[in-house]
Each structure stands twice: as structure tokens, then as C-alpha cells.
Write a structure and sequence with these properties.
The complex is a heterodimer of chains A (295) and B (263).
Chain A lengths: L10 H6 L6 E4 L9 H8 L6 E5 L3 H8 L3 E6 L11 H8 L4 E4 L2 H12 L4 E4 L7 H5 L3 E3 L7 E6 L3 E12 L4 E2 L8 H7 E12 L2 H4 L16 E4 L17 H12 L4 H8 L4 H7 L2 H6 L7
Parallel strand pairs in A: 1-2, 1-8, 2-3, 3-4, 8-10, 10-11
Antiparallel strand pairs in A: 5-7, 6-7, 8-9
Chain B lengths: L5 H10 L9 E4 L2 H12 L7 E2 L4 E3 L15 E4 L5 H6 L4 E5 L3 E2 L5 E2 L2 E4 L4 E4 L6 H7 L2 E5 L36 E6 L2 E4 L8 E5 L5 H6 L6 E7 L5 H10 L20
Parallel strand pairs in B: 1-5, 5-10, 10-11, 13-14
Antiparallel strand pairs in B: 2-3, 3-4, 6-7, 8-9, 11-12, 12-13
Helix pairs in contact in B: 1-2, 2-6
Classes of the chains: A alpha/beta (295), B alpha/beta (263).
């Protein structure tokens, strides 16, 4: 089979590869390193009935608010400094989405099971809580002398994963910086296809940044498509380029109360296209100037 | 010197939970627990490992509130990407947190309240890492407003963290990692040292009676020796102030009372 080594695509072409009913993993963590420009592209599309698998932030809130989500697999949905994600809350309190609630560690364990092509991986996590019963999680007994009974965390297989990286070349050699890369590597390994948006697309990465090769968190065989979208994590943080935009998050959260109707505010938080969106938020320069968050 | 505040007394009481823990990651979530782990490290337990709240291990606790981005001094690395391998599932951590509800078994909830799982009345955070934390490493709790909505009658609405409830144990499961240590509130200090790990009051803050604590709790408490919770020393107050230059601790307990005042 001929391999398509030039993996450059537009955001619309990436979303064009997705189908109704798919299971999508979204990288990042809460309000950090989220592939928001690709999420916005989904919000501009007709896609529906998605199963979203994420350490959730505004990505989850927006997709729920827009009625794109059939099922949500999550351990939390939060914007850190704004602990409770209001659009996610609305969807949950309306009983609008089916859920599989997991512990943060179980969640990455499920991605790893999928990555290793296993049906499940055993863990003690979940014992003594309501998770197993609510999530239909089964147990498994150790075949060794200890005979321990463990939760069998099922593989979280993804039809596609979306991640936002610092750099990539057209072949999908990505480089990821910042203090923490979270579980983006495992989203990519758990997915049949991974699409990476990047702050900067370069020609041949070995000609530009060979000294940063250790930042290649996942091999290009796991990357199906790349697109350059500077500011593509906004309003989430993308160190070292920019911090989160708490002002934008606050406006987004306030809009959940007033007017409370996503369609009425979608223009502001999604826009007709990415250029429009960035212009609405002060342009690339304003995004690049957002200070890195202090914890 | 001005009178110590109740929040400062709580910080000192919380820090005691981390005494003699060994070389483990001490996590304090929220201003009082975070100041407590910093105080513990700078006084009785220098072996504790702290993070900057983001991804790095620090040997000098990071002060609360606004500061320069690079003022933290990185001594090690503990990102979320390896948190479960290194700190949680290895048992090398003790976390102090503030869930929304806690019941007589030490089961905690921060996920949702009321309604059903399919349609909760109030959706909160989700279980986060609490199921893993509670089955694998020691945990303690801080509550700034002791009351029956926190210390609930019956059981919590959704069991997000494992406790000592025999009905929630399955044959063959390994529950040896469940280790609930200390509960500090604006009224008292409690532990799980009662019969069958029942919650027991071990010290009362100045001016507080056991009856008052029991009144504010949705289940029956056991009474330990009921010492008076020690006041912060001048040295402790100085360290707390240095770790909290913006006095964020003053916002934790309603009206920020001084110790022993009728708040």
C-alpha cells in the first residue's frame, strides 16, 4: 500500500475524515494543551452522536453544549481556576449525555490497554467506590497463588485522536514541549488515526530542530494528519507559547448562565472560521502574549 | 504580635498529618492543606517531596498566589504523565483534600449530588483521581466549615473515594492500601482510630466542645482523649506568613476568626 507521507491537511479535511457515531479522544488536560481549533472545526461541522474520551475542559463543555455528544468518557471536566465547567454541568443535569465516569489513573490505563491491543488491564482502582457498578466494569481474578480480584479496566479504543503539538513537519514528526505532555502520547497510541494540529509546521524537522528530537513524544507512524494552527489551543494553555485565557474562559462560563443558550453565543466562541475566531479574541499576537499560568 | 487565626491553627494541625511520613510526595490541595505541607517540610519533616502544583518537584515550597513564573526552583520532575506510576499507584504519596461530602466510613464524594447517575441534580467535578488515591496511598482531609452537609448522615451520594465500609468490599479484593489518616476542620481534629475505623475526635480547637462537634456532624462520633488543639508557635506563624505573602489563608474560613473567638 502506498504510504501518504505528506500528511498536511486542512482542519476541515481532518474533520471530513470523521464520521457520526465515532469515538474521539481529545488530548490535553482540563484547560491545558487542548486541540481547541480542531474542536471548533467539529463545532462548525454537521458531525453528531460522538463518544468523547477526554480529561475534560472546555472541549467537552462546548461539544456537549452544541449537542454533538452521545456519550462522554471522563474522570473530570474542569477549567482549574474555574473548577466547575458550566456547560458540562448543564448537559449532565439535563440528562443529555450517556456517561462512563472513570478515575484519572484508570482512564490512562484504558488508553494503554487499547494501545497494547489488549481487552483490558487489571487495577485495584475503583474497588470500594461506585465506579464499577455505575460503569459496568467487571472484575478478574489473578491466576497466580495470590488469587487477587481486580477491576478489569476495558481498553478505551479510539477511532480517532486529536492533539495539539508545538511543532511538526509534513511527515508527522511532532515535537511537544511544556512542563507536562499529559497523556497525549497514549491518546495517539490508542487511536486508529491521530490528527495533530501544531503551532508551527516546518519542512524537514531534522534540518530545523534536531536537538529537540527527544520531544518527539509519539512516532510518526501514529500520526495520520497534521495542520498548522497557531493559537490552536486557545483559550487553553500551550506552554511555552502562551498561557490560558481566563478572561475568555470566564466569558464562556458566564454565557452558560446568561443567555444560557449555546446557539446564541456560538459565534463568539467558535466563529465562522479560525481566522474569525482569533480576530474575535484579539488576534494571534494577543494570544501569544497570554502569560503562562502560575500554580 | 496579633492573635493567631483559626486558619493558622488549622494549618499547623494539618501539617501534623505529614509528620514522620518518610520520603513521599505530600500533596495539599487548597490553601490550608498546601500551606500545611510546606510548613511540615520546613519544620519537622524535611524529607517530604512537594510539587510546584504543576509538574516539578521542589525542595523549597512554592508560595501561594501571584509570583514570577520561574521563581519556583525545580529539583525534580513529576508531571501528570507519570504521576500514577511514580506517586499514586506506588503508594508513595499522602494527599490532603477537601471533598464535598464525607460519611461515617470515610467514603468521600466530589462527583455529583442528588438525582441519579444519568441525571444528577448537581454535577460537580467528577471523581478525578480519588478512587486511585484512596485505594493506593494515605489520605487526609480538611474542611473549613464543619457541618452536617459535609459530614453526612447515611452514605455519600456517590462514592468517589474508598473508605472502610464493609458492604463495599468484594471477596479477594486487596484493600490494604486504604489508609485514611486525619480530618481537620474549623472545630476539631479527628482520626479513624475508633472501633472498626470509626471517626473519632482527638482534639478540640480552643473554646469548642465535643457536643458542639457532634451537633454539627450527621453521624455519631467517638471521643478520644480530647486534648486541646495546640496553638501555632511564633516560628510556625512566621513560616506560614512567608509561604502565603498575599494572606490567601484569611479567605478560607468565614470571617477569618482569631482562635477562640465566637465566630
Amino acid at each position: 500500500m502506498a504510504v501518504q507521507l505528506d500528511k498536511r491537511m486542512s482542519a476541515a479535511e481532518i474533520v471530513g475524515q470523521l464520521r457520526d457515531g465515532m469515538t474521539l479522544g481529545i488530548g490535553g488536560w482540563g484547560p491545558r494543551r487542548k486541540p481547541m481549533a480542531l474542536v471548533r472545526e467539529i463545532l462548525r461541522s454537521e458531525l453528531k452522536d460522538l463518544t468523547i474520551v477526554a480529561y475534560g475542559g472546555a472541549d467537552v463543555g462546548m461539544l456537549c453544549a452544541a449537542g454533538k455528544v452521545r456519550k462522554l468518557v471522563y474522570a473530570f471536566v474542569s477549567l482549574d481556576a474555574i473548577p466547575l465547567e458550566p456547560w458540562f454541568r448543564k448537559a449532565r443535569e439535563a440528562g443529555q449525555v450517556e456517561v462512563l465516569e472513570l478515575d484519572e489513573g484508570m482512564f490512562q490505563w484504558g488508553l494503554k490497554a487499547a494501545a497494547f491491543r489488549l481487552p483490558f488491564l487489571p487495577t485495584r482502582v475503583g474497588l470500594g467506590t461506585d465506579l464499577a457498578e455505575l460503569g459496568g466494569l467487571k472484575t478478574v481474578q489473578s491466576p497466580y497463588a495470590d488469587g487477587e480480584v481486580l477491576i478489569a479496566m476495558p481498553a478505551l479504543r479510539l477511532d480517532a485522536a486529536l492533539i495539539h503539538v508545538n511543532r511538526s513537519d509534513w511527515r508527522g514528526n511532532v515535537q511537544v514541549f511544556g512542563p507536562d505532555v499529559y497523556y497525549d502520547e497514549w491518546f495517539a497510541r490508542a487511536a486508529a488515526k491521530t490528527y495533530a494540529s501544531c503551532e508551527r509546521l516546518v519542512d524537514r524537522i531534522e534540518d530545523h530542530y534536531p536537538e529537540d528530537a527527544q520531544a518527539n513524544i509519539v512516532e510518526r507512524s501514529f500520526v495520520t494528519g497534521v495542520v498548522e494552527l497557531p493559537g490552536g489551543a486557545h483559550p487553553s494553555s500551550m506552554p511555552p507559547h502562551y498561557g490560558w485565557d481566563m478572561k475568555a474562559f470566564k466569558a464562556y462560563c458566564d454565557a452558560a448562565k446568561d443567555p444560557g443558550d449555546w446557539q446564541a453565543v456560538a459565534d463568539r466562541f467558535v466563529g465562522a472560521c479560525e481566522a474569525d475566531y482569533l480576530a474575535n479574541h484579539g488576534g494571534k499576537e494577543a494570544v501569544a502574549a497570554l502569560p503562562l499560568p502560575i500554580f | 504580635m496579633s492573635e493567631p487565626t483559626l486558619a493558622e491553627l488549622c494549618i499547623v494541625a494539618c501539617s501534623e498529618a505529614f509528620r514522620g511520613n518518610g520520603e513521599i510526595v505530600a500533596t495539599g490541595v487548597g490553601p490550608v492543606p498546601r500551606l500545611a505541607v510546606g510548613l511540615a517540610k520546613l519544620t519537622h519533616s524535611p524529607e517530604l517531596m512537594l510539587t510546584d502544583g504543576e509538574a516539578y518537584l521542589v525542595e523549597q515550597p512554592v508560595p501561594l498566589g501571584p509570583r514570577g513564573y520561574d521563581e519556583r526552583k525545580k529539583a525534580g520532575y513529576l508531571p501528570f504523565a507519570r504521576f500514577f506510576d511514580a506517586a499514586v499507584w506506588s503508594g508513595r504519596r499522602h494527599a490532603m483534600v477537601t471533598p464535598t461530602q464525607l460519611d461515617r466510613f470515610g467514603q468521600i464524594n466530589l462527583s455529583r449530588m442528588g438525582g441519579t447517575h444519568a441525571q444528577p441534580k448537581t454535577q460537580m467535578l467528577g471523581v478525578r483521581g480519588f478512587p486511585g488515591n484512596t485505594i493506593h496511598h494515605p489520605n487526609s482531609f480538611f474542611f473549613p466549615a464543619h457541618g452536617p452537609r459535609v459530614f453526612v448522615a447515611g452514605e455519600v451520594d456517590m462514592i468517589s473515594g474508598a473508605g472502610y465500609n464493609p458492604a463495599k468490599r468484594i471477596a479477594g479484593g486487596n484493600y490494604s492500601g486504604i489508609d485514611l489518616r486525619r480530618i481537620v476542620t474549623d472545630l476539631c481534629v479527628m482520626d479513624f482510630g475508633g472501633n472498626d475505623n470509626a471517626i473519632r475526635v482527638v482534639s478540640l480547637h480552643p473554646g469548642v466542645s465535643f457536643e458542639q462537634v457532634q451537633e454539627a456532624t450527621g453521624f455519631a462520633l467517638e471521643a478520644g482523649e480530647l486534648a486541646e488543639t495546640p496553638l501555632p508557635t511564633a516560628e510556625q506563624l512566621e513560616i506560614i506568613a512567608s509561604l502565603d505573602p498575599h494572606n490567601i489563608r484569611a479567605t478560607v474560613i468565614r470571617d477569618n476568626p482569631t482562635v477562640g473567638s465566637d465566630a
